Structure formats: C-alpha cells, structure tokens
Amino acid sequence: MTVDIRMYSGFAGQAGRLAAVRQDVEELLRTVHGLRRFVLLETAEGLAVILECEDRAACEECARRAEHWMQERMPALSGYRPLAVTGEVIAEVSVQPITDRSSSPGPTSGTAPRLGT
C-alpha cells in the first residue's frame, strides 16, 4: 500500500471554496482503480491532501486529478508545487469506533461476559 501526502502552504482560509464542491472531486477520484482513501484537510497553513492507494501508480493518478480539480477552483494554485512525500506503508493501526455499550445486548450463550457490566 502506498500513501501520498501533499501540503499546500500559503492558502489559509481557502478550504471553504473546495469544501463547498467536494462531491465533484469525490466522484472524479472514485473511478481510479486502486484508490483506498482520499482526505482533503484544512490546515493552519492552507490545505493538505492524503491519498492511500494500492500502488504508486494509483496515487500518482489520484494526485494528478486532485491537483487539476483544485487548480480549476483556485487559480492561484496554478504552477504551485506542493511539498509532497510518497512512501510504502510499513506499519498501520486501525481502531474501530467505540459504540454506545448501554444499548448493546448482554453476553450470549458461549461468550465471555464483558468487564465492567
């Protein structure tokens, strides 16, 4: 799995322009084979894009499409070179969200009781 991170400094306060039409970029990127996750962040300095893909080629295609989409909506990005890092994932931790346990059923036959209940 490959992750690509691109930082766009100097564009603070501009995220709202992109957030208002984010469905467009979501649709544009859904067709890229190998895309696992796309995240557009508003940062104190401007914007950041995080791509998680099956391989480097998918990350490159997603980044190309996302940059073109952003440049169409923010002409000041034209010619701007973001700080970009790309690498292979060597460790990952995923945590499932904690659900409201007060509404969950109690233990069923053959399962250990939950602590604290």
Report on the structure:
With 117 residues, the protein is of the alpha+beta class. It contains 3 helices and 4 strands, in the order βααββαβ. It has one domain: Alpha-Beta Plaits. It has a 4-stranded antiparallel beta sheet, with helices on one face. About 4% of the residues have low confidence.
Sheet of most strands? 4 strands, antiparallel
CATH architecture: 2-Layer Sandwich
Helix content range: 25-40%
Count of DSSP H/I helices? 3
Cα Rg: 19 Å
Low-confidence stretches: 106-110
Structure summary:
By secondary structure, the chain is an alpha+beta fold.
Q: How does the SSE layout of this entry go?
A:
Blueprint: E1 2-9, H1 15-19, H2 22-30, E2 35-42, E3 46-53, H3 56-73, E4 83-88
Antiparallel strand pairs: 1-3, 1-4, 2-3
Write a concise keyword list for the protein shown above.
about 120 residues; alpha+beta; 4 strands; about 25% strand; globular
